[in-house]
Amino acid sequence: MSSSTLVSLPSMEPKDGNSLHRFNLNELKRQANIPAKFLWPKVDLVGTEGVFDEPLVDLEGFVKGDEIATAKAIELVRAACTNHGFFQVINHGADADLIQAVYREIDTVFELPFDKKLGFRQKLGGYTGFSSAHAERFSTNLPWKETFSLGYRGTDSDSDSAVVDYFTSALGHDFENVGRVYQKYCEKMRELSLIIMELLALSLGLDRSYYRKFFEDGTSVMRCNNYPPCKKSDVTFGTGPHCDPNSITLVHQDHVGGLEIFTGDKWLEVPPRQDVFGINIGDTFMAFCNGRYKSCVHRAILNEEKVRRSLVYFVNPKEEVVVRPPEDLVINSSPVYPDFTWASLFDFANNRHRAGLQTLQDFFPWLSSQPKVPT
């Protein structure tokens, strides 16, 4: 299977409020058959062919300024991002007890009655709240998962309570502790993301602060994924093959596993490790580095017997930031991609097009057709 045979997902078909399909996966998981909207084309249902076993990137020496450790980390990141856009980090600074607390607390959200969860569901055009199978956005090839998402900037004067306030406003004061745990987790993910940006800059031969400045005040998205068991795991996905449209993604998967990446013309399982975070390069960073690094093609498979959880932190620049590569990466050539703002790509991927394997290629013709804003 070559990358050219990977099929881009169809454009999304938004639903209005009256036609929204409300799929309760905790009920459907008991059925021998699943609705046709969850069935995926055979071309995408390619089996796993191996295990991803590349060396882990140890951040401890890099953070402490150790030159030998930094050189090693740069070498590993450069090789991984050039090849497939995915690497894993250890000694990242996120406490194991905090990570487990996040999983434990989010169970209290996903275990709520379905009607209660629908009361704070994600609105069409939005990105926060609860979603079941993204049915408010898509009409075919639905993912077998529930998600709960929220935005996080981390630089506002009231940022120390923003996540807590979100949980209590959406779910009530009984969820204040859930909010406090997620507040701490978001703070740690923001800190880790900026460290990763410094490492990426150095790996590209740039000043270590070059990319960091674009992301210090960006609004990132924290998402929790819940994948119920599925009796038909061979014909559907928890998340289908795609690239993330954002800049980088920090992902932690629980002990069940299910994350896979596409490299060397085959799908490889990423074994779960509780002390590891996976880092995906996304489309926006691919443009930021003039295509030097690849946007990671990945998917999530399902388990027939066990529920699976994952924690995902999507890192974004500020909305009005113009995405263009530094001159050092376009010497003797033209930029691979036209300039664009993150706001415009987010609008396209969130409201007008289903993020897949060719999001940037589909985005630019749409962008060029939009009315020009006077300057």
Automatic annotation (TrEMBL):
Residue ranges annotated for the Fe2OG dioxygenase domain, each copy included: 218-317
Pfam family, one: 2OG-FeII_Oxy
InterPro entries noted in UniProt: DIOX_N, IPNS-like_FE2OG_OXY, IPNS-like_sf, Iron_ascorbate_oxido_reductase, Oxoglu/Fe-dep_dioxygenase_dom
Keywords: Iron, Metal-binding, Oxidoreductase
PROSITE patterns: FE2OG_OXY (PS51471)
Keyword Iron annotated: yes
Family: Belongs to the iron/ascorbate-dependent oxidoreductase family.
Name listed for the protein in its UniProt record: Fe2OG dioxygenase domain-containing protein
